[in-house]
Amino acid sequence: MYMVTTPWWLRMWYRNLLWQMPANGNKVYLTFDDGPHPEATPFVLSTLAEFNAKATFFCIGKNVTTHADIYQQILEQGHTVGNHTQAHTNGFKTDTEKYVQGVTAAAQHINSSWFRPPYGRLTWAQASALRQMNYRIVMWSLLSGDFDTSITGEQCYNYVQQHLQPGSIVVFHDSAKALPRLRLALPKVLKYMQAMGWQSAAL
Ligand SMILES: [Zn+2]
Fold first, then answer.
1. How remote is the CA of residue 51 from the centroid of ligand 1, in Å?
2. What are the extents of the domains in the chain?
3. Which of 131, 159, 199, 202 has a CA between 20 and 30 Å from the CA of residue 50?
């Protein structure tokens, strides 16, 4: 189970983390986790380019090593990158020292102060260790559900369309698992944003 939008109590609990951007403009913040991936990431990049949209990619260190050329394309196209650990570590199952090592290992390949914890799972100790290292920890306000194999691309689009607003930080995935839903949902989300006069911006 997952929640499409993050409830207020969860945001209060982790109020030092970034859940949402200012809602007073026309900017929406699309983010893509778990890449680079040889099929999903080029699809995302070309779709974003069609709409002149910028986004943030939270990359896994070992995927950056495997797909260094695609990682370069993300940077060359003016998007922001963030650290998503070296091997998609679950913070609740890893002690702080090991967790920080995973972030530091990924930082060898990803030059960024933005960090998003895999699964959104991070302990207080891990969060404060990363903050001391000057990482800016980004959560989200809206999950697209693109990783959910029990829903269609249309349902994924509908979730996003119903909850999207200026300042939203939206999670998608440039992964093999999410791609079947992403192919339909991402262009539709960008079209909807265009109709609303909202711009997709990088962090
Ligand atoms: Zn992830």
1. 25
2. 30-139+154-163+178-193
3. 159
